[in-house]
Amino acid sequence: MTKKEVVLSGMLAFIPIAIAANRLNLNPVLVFVASGLAIIPLAAWIANSTEGIAEVVGPTLGGLLNSTFGNATELIVSIVALRAGLVEVVKASITGTIIANLLLALGLATLLGGIRYKEQSFQPTVARINASSLNLAVVILLTPAAIHFTSSGLKESTLTNFSIALSVLLLLFYALMLLFSMKTHSHIYRIGDAEIEHVVESSAGRSLLWRQVGILLVCTIALVFVSEILVSSLEKAISTLGLTDLFTGVILIPIFGGAVEYITAATFAMKNKMDLAVAVAMGSSLQIAMFVAPILVLMGRVLGQPMDLEFNAFELLAVAIAVLITNSISNDGKSNWLEGAMLLVTYAAVGTAFYFHP
Fold it and tell me: What is the CATH number of the domain that holds 216?
């Protein structure tokens, strides 16, 4: 086992710790932190089992599986929070995850990779496609707030219905992206696919399908259970720490849910596989915007917790900043450590602003 696998396996101990702390009604901050840390190894096991299944079922179905379940952790935690009525926290976690993937994950990967290698390169064509798709996501996320800002006496149901229409459009475009990357223009992504297969084969080998499906089901059930504990302790923990729902949703929850992706992106970069690091960071942000967010809007209608895509102005500004600076450094297909530092400083500034935001 690698050091990473040993650490993640050891972190499974936080599952019984979180359960015990919750049953004993201990400090809500302790329950919140323990359940948040318990999510990290579960997310890693879900990601590994999904990759294992993808190896067995083949590249096409496997690619679809990876694309669909790439952000399963964030989706499950958000659905549990949505069912509990924490709509604003869920919305904040959507923007927060996009920001964290683009600034924190990509920044960390670019910095660490740039320290080891003077300059790294990745496919500019894929980066440009991802950048354009992120621009589309920003435009779509801006429109509900723009309608609200330019209208008077707007009914809440109007924004909800408009958000449902936008969600359908986002899911349609997400399906087109999958068709583009897996079928009509799969040759553009072939280098990344080959490297992923090499990494998987060298570290884990080819696993039996039933074993990976079993791991996926067990970890998903455990994740739902731990997410329930996290969400139940959330409001009390926020109150105890004196934090706002906005800061918790934008900064804290994405760190717990996306820690595995941050580590994965950094690991790829340090192995001089910057193509994969960029794909993990930017691809995850696209999945959140194009797949997770619209699914949550539709689930909100089903669960009786109406959720729209109207975000507050500061969240939208932060997302726009993250997309703008990420696109500006990825256009040339090259990266260095200073660009990584630039992304991390931007994330630190944005995170501090959310901390002080009333």
Answer: 1.20.1420.30
